[in-house]
């Protein structure tokens, strides 16, 4: 059984939601956030990326930056820009983008479910990132952004959520600057709240982390430490703010790669090395792979289809058969000498929302030497990998649409202070 409970959200007033809400903190850098929030003191970037209020070069992980972010949230509540609901509630959150619609429930999952592997992961986290974000949670006692979770669809939950959307008008119904329509409904009826909690306990034995592995780990570790020394009996240290979507509504796009140089090789030498493990077919135009054994390659104005040869991957291995693994094992590491995808500055990752033309721009401009178009992983594959306690390589999943930040905040102290 899974534990899913309501909470008293801190959220924008209806007339402030568009000026407050932002993209997630990790999809843009400090300078981009500084530019997007220019002239807007209500922007949630002042909370999630508070280093924008400090001079360039200031340590974004310093205690004073963390405290400043918390104070910015306090100020938004004090001036009425954000409010806290007076009763514990669930929230129905619908996102619409380019004809795709997904609707989830906002609430809190149990950190015990994380430690007991009811909440399953598919990526390995970095201890230093975990430690930093854990420190942030311990100091702020706030979940500033929700983690994005999924579960195998349950018809009874789908039906209940659909009915809740039609029961009353939404709290928010607006388009963000990236073209996504966001709608949010509050669920405060105690009988419906109980029904939701009971459905998850009875029908959802496993929850899967879609996006937010480090936030989930940090929230769980921080909550466990805080709970050990808790003096406030009304604390929420045992919970993490989450948005849960049924697996059939989650959209994952391709997450492509571009590399700055060919590791000292000429174009022909590079292609010849690739031919050792791939069939290389020159294409007439852009090529988008349709299976994990195919990879698109763009170099010097031309597109190529790479077909992995037999023996270059294990078709019975859930991770080894992925195009991301094939690319890393057969091209990035042995030919381009890129081993650590998270740390190597020679590689860049480009979300599929930007299209294949973005790969062409990166190469044609001279910024990058070569780009690779990847086949997206599916939610079914993620579930299968997580169920088998396996970990995928980093930078594989690009979820769209992105959750909007600032629509809901969770105070671990219960009441906000």
Describe the structure concisely for a colleague.
With 417 residues, the chain is α+β, with helices and mostly antiparallel strands. It is built from 13 helices and 21 strands.
Ordered list of secondary-structure elements with their pairings:
Blueprint: E1 4-5, E2 10-12, H1 17-20, H2 30-36, H3 45-48, H4 63-78, E3 82-84, E4 90-97, E5 100-110, H5 111-115, E6 119-120, H6 127-140, E7 142-143, E8 147-151, H7 155-167, E9 172-175, E10 181-187, H8 190-203, E11 207-211, H9 213-228, E12 239-246, E13 252-253, E14 255-259, H10 267-275, E15 278-282, E16 294-299, E17 302-308, H11 323-332, E18 347-351, H12 356-364, E19 370-373, H13 379-387, E20 398-399, E21 410-411
Parallel strand pairs: 6-11, 8-12
Antiparallel strand pairs: 1-5, 2-3, 4-5, 4-10, 5-12, 7-21, 8-11, 9-10, 13-20, 14-18, 14-19, 15-17, 16-17, 16-19
Helix pairs in contact: 6-9
Number of extended strands: 21
Q: Mean pLDDT, rounded to whole units?
A: 95
- Which stretches are low in confidence, meaning pLDDT under 50 for 5 or more residues running? none
**What best-fitting shape do the alpha-carbon axes yield?**
globular
Number of domains: 2
Structural category: alpha+beta
Report how far the terminal alpha carbons are from each other: 33 Å
Helical fraction equals 25-40%
Strand content: 15-25%
Number of helical segments with 4 or more residues: 13
Largest sheet: 9 strands, mixed
Radius of gyration: 22 Å
């Amino acid at each position: 059984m899974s534990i899913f409970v309501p909470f008293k959200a801190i959220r924008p007033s209806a007339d402030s939601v568009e000026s407050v809400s932002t993209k997630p903190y990790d999809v843009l850098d400090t300078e981009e956030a500084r530019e997007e929030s220019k002239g807007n003191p209500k922007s949630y970037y002042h909370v999630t990326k508070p280093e924008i209020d400090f001079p360039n070069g200031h340590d974004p992980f310093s205690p004073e930056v963390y405290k400043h972010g918390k104070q910015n949230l306090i100020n938004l509540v004090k001036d009425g820009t954000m409010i806290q609901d007076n009763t514990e509630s669930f929230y129905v959150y619908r996102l619409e983008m380019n004809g795709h619609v997904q609707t989830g429930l906002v609430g809190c999952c149990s950190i015990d479910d994380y430690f007991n592997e009811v909440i399953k992961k598919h990526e390995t986290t970095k201890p230093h990132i975990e430690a930093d974000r854990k420190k942030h949670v311990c100091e702020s006692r706030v979940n500033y952004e929700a983690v994005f979770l999924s579960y195998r669809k349950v018809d009874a939950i789908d039906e209940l959520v659909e009915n809740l959307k039609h029961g009353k008008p939404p709290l928010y119904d607006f388009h963000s600057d990236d073209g996504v329509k966001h709608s949010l409904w509050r669920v405060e009826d105690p009988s419906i709240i109980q029904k939701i909690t009971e459905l998850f306990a009875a029908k959802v034995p496993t929850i899967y982390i879609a996006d937010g592995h480090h936030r989930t780990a940090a929230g769980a570790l921080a909550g466990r430490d805080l709970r050990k020394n808790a003096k406030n009996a009304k604390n929420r240290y045992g919970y993490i703010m989450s948005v849960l979507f049924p697996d059939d509504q989650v959209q994952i796009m391709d997450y492509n790669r571009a590399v700055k140089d060919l590791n000292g090789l000429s174009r022909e030498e590079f292609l010849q090395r690739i031919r050792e493990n791939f069939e290389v077919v020159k294409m007439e135009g852009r090529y988008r792979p349709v299976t994990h054994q195919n990879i698109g390659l763009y170099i010097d104005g031309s597109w190529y289809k790479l077909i992995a040869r037999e023996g270059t991957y294990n078709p019975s291995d859930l991770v080894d058969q992925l195009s991301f693994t094939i690319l890393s094992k057969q091209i990035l590491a042995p030919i381009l000498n890129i081993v650590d995808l998270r740390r190597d500055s020679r590689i860049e990752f480009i979300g599929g929302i930007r299209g294949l033309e973005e790969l062409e721009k990166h190469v044609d401009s001279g910024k990058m030497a070569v780009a690779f178009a990847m086949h997206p992983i599916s939610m079914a594959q993620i579930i299968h990998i997580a169920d088998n306690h396996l970990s995928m390589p980093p930078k594989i999943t690009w979820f769209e649409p992105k959750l909007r930040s600032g629509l809901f905040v969770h105070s671990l102290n219960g009441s906000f202070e």
